[in-house]
Structure to design on (285 residues):
């Protein structure tokens, strides 16, 4: 059973539409794929309508959080997307993306980069605008060779020259909100140090005590030493261990299913969730 629990579509900062994403997941030989766009559930309908037979969709989202000045992402699975309190918080985070992106464009202009707001919005399309869209604009302009190269202190990494903060949820509050909506939480790429400062193990222990369900270990931004350390930490704290591609279509080099989650862990996630259930494919549109 091939399971990928972290992907993005054009509903946020991926390049595949939700329909294309599930079709590509089936073509890649996946049995289960989770749609986890940033702070939004807008891709659900398109993904479900196109869901191929033999592929199961896990609905979710990647929530933007910050603690002690450190940005972190929390994967939320199988929550009730209409639960009022969590919905209001997601909208608050999402609405702050536009002024933040405008601020990054302004800072880049001050640095002599001829990026425009119109260019960023063209790249974002119908998705929730974010740093990857600004990064893609930098690639188009020849400022950096790849999107990943834009996430440095020279440009868009946390604390970088063109970085602008946005509203992000306290992760303890995020865990509470997701649990109240019947969902399951997994700390996304906790050891991705090249993105900026990472959350210390002591804080992960506190999050586990507050109800965090798991940590994403097998990820393209984790080297083998980091993975070994995270597996040990998960065992110590009683956390589930997941693996995922963090697929963004052509915006990243990683492919669907390149990193996967053990079927037993997936089963435990579905057993813990009460807000929604995985959606089996029936052939799609």
């Amino acid at each position: 059973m091939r399971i990928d629990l972290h992907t993005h579509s054009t509903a946020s900062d991926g390049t595949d539409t939700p329909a294309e994403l599930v079709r590509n997941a089936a073509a890649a030989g996946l049995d289960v794929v989770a749609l986890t766009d940033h702070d939004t559930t807008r891709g659900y309908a398109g993904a479900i309508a196109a869901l191929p037979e033999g592929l199961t969709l896990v609905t979710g989202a990647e929530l933007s959080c910050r603690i002690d000045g450190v940005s972190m992402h929390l994967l939320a699975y199988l929550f009730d997307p209409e639960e009022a309190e969590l919905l209001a918080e997601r909208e608050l985070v999402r609405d702050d993306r536009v002024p933040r992106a405008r601020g990054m464009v302004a800072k880049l202009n001050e640095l002599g980069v001829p990026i425009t707001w119109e260019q960023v919005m063209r790249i974002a399309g119908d998705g929730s605008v974010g740093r990857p869209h600004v990064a893609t604009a930098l690639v188009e302009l020849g400022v950096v060779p790849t999107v990943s190269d834009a996430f440095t202190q020279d440009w868009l990494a946390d604390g970088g020259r063109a970085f602008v903060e946005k509203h992000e949820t306290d992760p303890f509050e995020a865990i509470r909100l997701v649990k109240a909506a019947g969902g399951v939480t997994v700390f996304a790429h906790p050891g991705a140090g090249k993105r900026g400062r990472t959350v210390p193990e002591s804080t992960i222990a506190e999050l586990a005590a507050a109800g965090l369900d798991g940590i994403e270990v097998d990820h393209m931004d984790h080297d083998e030493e980091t993975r070994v350390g995270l597996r040990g930490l998960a065992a110590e704290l009683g956390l589930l261990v997941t693996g995922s591609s963090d697929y963004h279509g052509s915006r990243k080099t990683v492919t669907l299913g390149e990193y996967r989650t053990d079927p037993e862990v997936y089963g435990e996630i579905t057993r813990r969730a009460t807000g929604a259930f995985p959606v089996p494919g029936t052939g799609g549109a």
